[in-house]
Amino acid sequence: MAPTITAAWTNSHDHLALNHKLRKPLVEKLRRERINSSIEQLKSLLGPEFLKQQPDSKLEKADILEMTVCFLKELLQQHQQQRRLLEHLDELQTSSEQKLREAGSSPLSPAVQTSITKDQNPEKTLWRPW
């Protein structure tokens, strides 16, 4: 009985190995197609950037990847600068609001405060064109 099990296992193993050998080129082809598709998408997304750099030459995949990395680094740097600027503006606003509270004054001038107070009591001062 042992030789039959061994022969069946060998046939099964050979079948799997053959199946793997047949599938490997197809899997590799699909992998390359995915890579090429993604590179083409990058190229189209960054189209104006590419035309600016090398308008007449055909770009290699490595060129497209390098330019994408440079573009993303610039974008990240801009984002970080904007975030720092917004944080600084928030700090300035918080500081100004705190100083106003500490001084006990309103950010509105006395004339504007008087005007608002008058507008809250329209019965006292109605303007009529006639």
List the helices and strands and how they pair.
Layout: H1 2-45, H2 47-53, H3 61-103, H4 110-120
Helix pairs in contact: 1-3
Question: Please, could you describe this protein's structure?
Answer:
One of its GO terms (biological process) is negative regulation of cell differentiation. GO terms for molecular function: DNA binding; protein dimerization activity. Transcriptional repressor of genes that require a bHLH protein for their transcription. Plays an important role as neurogenesis negative regulator. This protein has 130 residues and is an all-alpha fold. It has four helices and no strands. It has one domain (7-99). It has helices at 2-45, 47-53, 61-103, 110-120. α1 crosses α3 (61-103). The longest helix is centred in the first third of the chain and has 44 residues, at 2-45. The N and C termini lie far apart (120 Å).
Q: What value does the average pLDDT take?
A: 77
State the separation between the terminal residues, measured CA to CA.
120 Å
Q: How many strands, what sense, and barrel or not for the largest sheet?
A: none
Low-confidence parts, pLDDT < 50 over ≥5 residues?
none
Give the DSSP E fraction (strand runs of 2 or more residues). Answer: under 5%
Number of structural domains? 1
Global Rg:
36 Å
By DSSP, the count of extended strands is 0
Q: What is the overall shape?
A: elongated
Q: Count of helices? A: 4
Function: Transcriptional repressor of genes that require a bHLH protein for their transcription. Plays an important role as neurogenesis negative regulator.
Subunit structure: Transcription repression requires formation of a complex with a corepressor protein of the Groucho/TLE family.
Region (Disordered): 94-130
Organism: Austrofundulus limnaeus
